[in-house]
Write a structure and sequence with these properties.
It contains 14 helices and four strands. The longest helix has 27 residues. By secondary structure, it is mainly alpha-helical.
Length: 333
C-alpha cells in the first residue's frame, strides 16, 4: 500500500505563502528603489541600511531563533573588514581571495570561540560575547603596524577579473543582491529540519536534547554561520567605503545590531529589515540635532518593550490576526 505524504497544515501554508509574498515585496523594493533615489547620498544611505539589514538577519538567526545572546557581533564584522584590508594592502592579494580568506579565518575563530562560550547561558553568555568583542576591538586598535591603529587604514577598491567595482549605484546592486540572498538563505534554513531544531533550542535546550537534537553542535553551527555572514559583509563594506577604523568593531556597533533585532522582532526576518530601516533613516533625519538620535532611540526602545514586547513585526502581526479572527468569530455567532 502506497503511503501518501501528509498534507501541509493550513497554518504552514499561510506561513509559506506569507514568506513568498514578503520575498517578492522585498525584491520589488530593491529593484524599484533606485528610480526614487535622486543622488549618490541617498544611494549611500540605502547601502548602509542594507548592510545593517544583512547583519540584523544573521544575528537574528542566533538570538531570535536559537536564543543565544551576542553582544560582540560587530567584532566579526571588523575581522572580515580588516582581514580583506590587510591582505590586499600589505600582501597584494586579490580582493576576492582576500574576502574568502577573511571569511574562512573568521569562521575558524568563531568555531573555536563557540566551543567554549556557548556552554554558558543567559547573562553569562552575554558577558562572554561582550568580552570577545572588546578583545577584537583592542587588537585592531593596538596592532598599528598592520591596521593603522586608532586612525584606521585605507582599503583598495574591489577588483574582479580586471574590473574594479566603483560608484554607489553599482555597489547598491551588490548589497541589494546580498540582502535578498541572505533573506532567502535564512528562510530556507528556518523551514528546514535544521531550522526547526534551532527553534527547539530556543524553547528548551533540555527538551531538545531529549528529542535527540545535538544541542552543542547546532548552537556552534548557527554561531559560525552568523559570524561568517558578518565577516563577508565586513569585507565588502571595507572595499565599498575605502577606509576603515576600529570603531566598526566597537561595542556600540554591536549594541546597534541588537537593537535592530529586538526592535523589529526576535525570530522575525522581516522584523530585522524594519529595524535596519529605522536605525538607518533616523540618524539622517536627526542629523541636525546632535545627541538627540540616541535619546530618541532610547524612547523608541522603551515604548516598543512596553507596548510591543515581542518587537514591532511579530506583535503587530499577532494583533492583526486576533482582530481578523475575532471578526470572523463574531460573524459566525
Amino acid at each position: 500500500m502506497t503511503h501518501l505524504p501528509d498534507a501541509p497544515t493550513p497554518r504552514r501554508e499561510r506561513s509559506y505563502t506569507g514568506r513568498l509574498v514578503g520575498l517578492a515585496a522585498l525584491t520589488a523594493i530593491v529593484a524599484l528603489l533606485p528610480l526614487f533615489l535622486p543622488n549618490a547620498f541617498y544611494f549611500d544611505v540605502a547601502i548602509r541600511i542594507a548592510i545593517l539589514a544583512v547583519n540584523g538577519v544573521a544575528l537574528n538567526l542566533l538570538m531570535g531563533y536559537t536564543g543565544q545572546i551576542s553582544l560582540g557581533h560587530a567584532g566579526f564584522f571588523g575581522l572580515g573588514a580588516y582581514g580583506s584590508a590587510v591582505l590586499t594592502t600589505h600582501f597584494g592579494w586579490s580582493s576576492l581571495l582576500a574576502l574568502l580568506a577573511a571569511a574562512a579565518l573568521t569562521a575558524v575563530i568563531a568555531w573555536g570561540v563557540a566551543r567554549v562560550i556557548l556552554r554558558l547561558r543567559g547573562h553569562y553568555l552575554a558577558m562572554a560575547t561582550l568580552g570577545l568583542g572588546i578583545i577584537i576591538s583592542i587588537v585592531l586598535t593596538n596592532e598599528t603596524a598592520w591596521t593603522g591603529g586608532p586612525d584606521g587604514m585605507p582599503v583598495d577598491g574591489f577588483s574582479l577579473f580586471g574590473f574594479t567595482l566603483s560608484g554607489e549605484r553599482r555597489w547598491y546592486w551588490v548589497f541589494g543582491g546580498l540582502l535578498i540572498g541572505t533573506v532567502i538563505l535564512a528562510q530556507n534554513l528556518i523551514d528546514s529540519p535544521a531550522g526547526r531544531a534551532l527553534q527547539a533550542l530556543h524553547g528548551s535546550e533540555t527538551a531538545a536534547s531529549v528529542a535527540g537534537i545535538d544541542v552543542g553542535r547546532r548552537k556552534i553551527a548557527v554561531f559560525v554561520l552568523s559570524a561568517t555572514v558578518a565577516a563577508i559583509l565586513g569585507s565588502l563594506s571595507a572595499h565599498y567605503s575605502g577606509y576603515i577604523n576600529p570603531g566598526i568593531a566597537g561595542f556600540m556597533q554591536s549594541v546597534e545590531l541588537v537593537i535592530i533585532v529586538v526592535l523589529g522582532g526576535m525570530a522575525s526576518i522581516y522584523g530585522s529589515l524594519l529595524g535596519a530601516v529605522v536605525m538607518g533613516v533616523l540618524p539622517q533625519i536627526l542629523a541636525g540635532y546632535e545627541g538627540w538620535d540616541s535619546v530618541l532611540f532610547g524612547v523608541i526602545m522603551v515604548v516598543t518593550m512596553i507596548f510591543l514586547p515581542r518587537g514591532v513585526v511579530p506583535s503587530l502581526t499577532t494583533r492583526l490576526r486576533a482582530v481578523r479572527f475575532g471578526r470572523k468569530g463574531g460573524a459566525t455567532c
